[in-house]
Amino acid sequence: MPTPASGATPLRRGLPRVPGGEPWPPAGFAPAPVAAAPPAAPKLVSRSEAPAAPVVPTPAAADEAVAPAPASPAPAPAVAPTPAVKPPPAVAPAAVEKPGKPAAEPRLYGARTLGQWTKRMILLAVAAVAAAGILVLAARGVTTLPGVPEFLKKYPGAYSLPATAEPGFPWWTQWAHFLNVFLMALIIRSGYHVRTQQKPPAYWTPKRGGKKISINLWLHQALDIVWLANGLVFVVLLFASGRWVRIVPTSWEVFPNAASALLQYMTLDWPVETGWVNYNSLQQLMYFIVVFIAAPLAAVTGVRLSEFWPKNAKTLNRLYPIEAARAVHYPTMLFFVVFILIHVFLVFATGALRNLNHMFGGTDAVNWAGFWLFAAAIAVTAAGWYAARPLVLAPLARLFGQVSSR
Ligand code: HEM
Ligand code: HEM
User: Is pLDDT above 90 for 93?
Assistant: First the structure.
């Protein structure tokens, strides 16, 4: 509702709260909420990626506190443009009362998903650590059982690699791994947005025509194409260089050795780290699963869910229903998340500087060089994470199609 603007510093009074009542708020009332409102609102709006979303303005903003949450889908974006003209006093108390609670900002998707995402991450990490604590005691008990010490001696946690295996981490392994870290962060985030946002901030329609999809899904799929290309280059070079023997099991001994390594991890008496030359069998199995099972599974189920999939291939679609793909695609993401948490934890817990020098510096030395390269990689990933918002994405997406707000 257009209100006459005036730059008055004293509290401005707006519409009455009840028909025929006094202007709200009473003269001289509530300086605190008014002062607090503008910082609170823009912060939430920026995190919610609202700038590019020409959200329907809600003229009834002043009624938000009276008719709360679910009734209006966009209270904060409605607030955002307003403060310059007129701070809406009735909204302020609501925002101030529950600053951190999603319930107070009913449909701020970015803020909500970010909050939920963080919460889930923390919960997962805490659960993993707690479970590990209980398991340590059990594992220590197991190592004293008859036969177990002999088993650990026979299977120390790794078997010898074929003689052809060369030690070290060539530059292309480092680059593929870095690109994978960068892309994976944004793929997981955009996939999570696809799953959780009921009203995306923008939409994208292909140039050649076709179904309109959310900008999140556009980003997800665009990143997937780059990620697949990166993965293919990595796998080709892996086999061309003979380096594949490091992450593809070449002996059945991988299983008892992986069990042995797992037991040693669980007792906190960890297997000796020789990643420069040879991974332990548990590592090898996990890397194999990530590269050769989880990644293809994400791709095969993802393509089924996408518009690339032929809709009219009836027999094919009966054999491979879309529901099956959907049922597998999300848990695959969860697998990746759990893998990454444990992977990064172990990288840091088993000789961080040396490990980081392996994958980010390409040397087996123990110094800070690899760490700083790792820090740079994380900074670039964080910048990508920050940039992956509609304001930045829309011009990019426009190169490949049309972008609209609804
Ligand atoms: C901040 C994140 C990450 C860090 C610091 C990190 C660090 C490392 C390090 C240090 C190694 C070598 C281990 C050693 O020398 O013993 C490694 C190997 C590996 N990492 Fe990561 N990693 C990260 C994220 C990821 C992600 C997101 C994935 C996949 C989803 C991944 C998959 C792998 C694989 C498959 C290998 C074995 C590669 C090979 O030797 O060919 N990593 N990582
Ligand atoms: C080539 C690779 C991939 C393709 C083509 C792809 C494609 C898709 C498509 C089309 C959707 C939308 C599903 C729908 O509309 O219901 C989707 C959702 C999603 N994707 Fe991917 N994706 C790929 C890889 C990944 C990876 C590697 C991850 C995470 C590690 C991931 C995580 C997700 C998540 C969490 C969702 C939401 C799932 C849900 O709503 O249940 N995707 N993906």
Answer: no
